[in-house]
């Protein structure tokens, strides 16, 4: 099965021109199929029959919703009066992009009334966009030559953003324990989050995790450890007991999350430490589960876990991290966390190491931890800010992970990030916008992708 975004193409026209131009509906439907074919490789496109009136349009979008598509690409096949789709946009559940395109990119002296009619989508787009604005519907717009590479690129970006936004509406975030006491930027009203963005919080008893760990067979544990020996450099100091417990934590977490239908989760070290049934924290488990596509955040931070999952759906890789300290001579920020990080962002010229690592947090035994440095190159930071009243803001910073010498004493995933706006400008903007300390990093320059995501999800976008 393809992992491309799945979108529906809603082509809008009207019967007014049938007598003047017999066969116009079939002709313009073929044009819609050409548009869909041109998007091969960036999205899977389902083309609905031409919407020639309100019933056609509403039936087409119901079909897109029933098929579980990620978004709706609206294309004007001719002019179509907006009142026929006004109620549809008032109740639209999927993200929308209006493709302001036409069959021919150039007007020539051979054009007559027929060519004018076939290519008159621009004033239909104006009428339709006006209806979307009046309905309060957030939507993207792509004005482009449909045959230009930029059209594929821009629609592809929107389609990925639509997939991420739609995925959040279906997301369940499992929380083991409770949020870190006193940590305010991670707190969110769960009903508000569900109503506004869609993620549902599932509180999971830690005893269920413990029982699931104990029920695992020795063969299942051995199979996971054998796979990790082929993937990671294993520290010789790790005992059989430590490796066994690490494997049971990872397998147990995934089994419990699958049982509850959760694609993201968060744990808090104090909650596990005070429980009394766990020997160590699941540090390496978080890293490998992120690499498998799960969202994750520490300390019970549900919005951050949801955003890491959105990062997976938007760009292919979401990495959980935070800003540890500023380096003014380098104009950079040390990015790390207590031990959790998606090993898919690791440098490709160094092995990822599973190490024995002392950690005096949580009051437990040493947690096996995956140690790596982040691949140098372009990267983007994003933080989901809860504003209250159902409003959310995304703070985004583009920059570069520097190619720096190792820090031998640092035993957790890390990298030096230089913001394009510099440490001073980035941090002034980040703090003024209320950016949180738990952050999603995505490889590459993905600010434009995050901006499209914000439009699709109804979130305020704030670059810094």
TrEMBL record:
This is L-fucose/L-arabinose isomerase family protein. The keyword Mitochondrion does not apply. Residues 45-166 form the L-arabinose isomerase N-terminal domain. Transmembrane segments: none annotated. GO terms for molecular function: isomerase activity. The keyword Isomerase applies. It comes from the Bacteria. Residues 176-310 form the L-arabinose isomerase central domain. InterPro entries: Ara_Isoase_C, AraA_central, AraA_N, AraA_N_sf, Fuc/Ara_isomerase_C, Fucose_isomerase_N/cen_sf, Lara_isomerase. Pfam families: AraA_central (PF24856), AraA_N (PF02610), Arabinose_Iso_C (PF11762). Gene3D superfamilies: 3.40.50.10940. Keywords: Arabinose catabolism, Carbohydrate metabolism, Isomerase, Manganese, Metal-binding. Residues 319-460 form the L-arabinose isomerase C-terminal domain.
């Amino acid at each position: 099965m393809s992992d491309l975004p799945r979108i529906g193409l809603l082509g809008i026209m009207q019967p007014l021109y049938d007598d003047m131009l017999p066969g116009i509906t079939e002709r313009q439907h073929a044009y819609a199929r050409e548009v869909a074919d041109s998007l091969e490789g960036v999205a899977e496109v389902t083309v609905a029959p031409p919407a020639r009136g309100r019933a056609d349009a509403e039936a087409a979008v119901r079909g897109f919703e029933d098929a579980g598509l990620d978004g709706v690409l609206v294309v004007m096949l001719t002019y179509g009066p907006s009142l026929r789709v006004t109620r549809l946009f008032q109740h639209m559940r999927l993200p929308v992009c209006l493709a302001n395109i036409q069959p021919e990119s150039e007007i020539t002296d051979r054009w007559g009334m027929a060519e004018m009619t076939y290519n008159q989508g621009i004033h239909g787009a104006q009428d339709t966009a006006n209806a979307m604005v009046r309905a309060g519907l957030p939507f993207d717009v792509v004005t482009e030559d449909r045959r230009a590479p930029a059209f594929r690129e821009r629609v592809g970006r929107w389609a990925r953003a639509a997939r991420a936004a739609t995925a959040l509406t279906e997301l369940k975030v499992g929380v083991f324990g409770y949020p870190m006491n006193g940590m305010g930027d991670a707190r969110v009203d769960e009903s508000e989050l569900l109503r506004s963005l869609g993620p549902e919080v599932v509180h999971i008893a830690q005893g269920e995790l413990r029982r699931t760990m104990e029920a695992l067979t020795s063969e299942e544990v051995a199979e996971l450890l054998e796979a990790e020996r082929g993937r990671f450099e294993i520290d010789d100091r790790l005992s059989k007991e430590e490796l066994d417990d690490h494997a049971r934590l990872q397998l147990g977490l995934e089994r419990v999350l699958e049982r509850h239908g959760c694609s993201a989760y968060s744990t808090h070290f104090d909650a596990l430490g005070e429980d009394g049934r766990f020997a160590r924290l699941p540090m390496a488990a978080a890293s490998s589960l992120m690499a498998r596509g799960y969202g994750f955040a520490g300390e019970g931070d549900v919005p951050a876990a949801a955003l890491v999952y959105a990062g997976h759906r938007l760009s292919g890789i979401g990495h959980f991290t935070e800003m540890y300290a500023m380096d003014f001579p380098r104009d950079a920020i040390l990015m790390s966390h207590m031990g959790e990080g998606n090993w898919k962002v690791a440098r490709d010229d160094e092995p990822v190491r599973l190490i024995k690592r002392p950690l005096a947090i949580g009051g437990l035994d040493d947690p096996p931890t995956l140690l790596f440095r982040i691949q140098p190159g372009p990267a983007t930071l994003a933080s989901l800010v809860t504003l209250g009243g159902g409003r959310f803001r995304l703070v985004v910073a583009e920059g570069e992970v520097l190619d720096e010498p190792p820090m031998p004493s640092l035993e957790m995933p890390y990298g030096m990030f230089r913001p394009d706006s510099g440490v001073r400008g980035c941090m002034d903007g980040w703090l003024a916008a209320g950016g949180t300390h738990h952050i999603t990093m995505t490889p590459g320059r993905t600010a434009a992708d995050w901006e499209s995501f914000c439009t699709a999800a109804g979130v305020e976008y704030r670059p810094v």
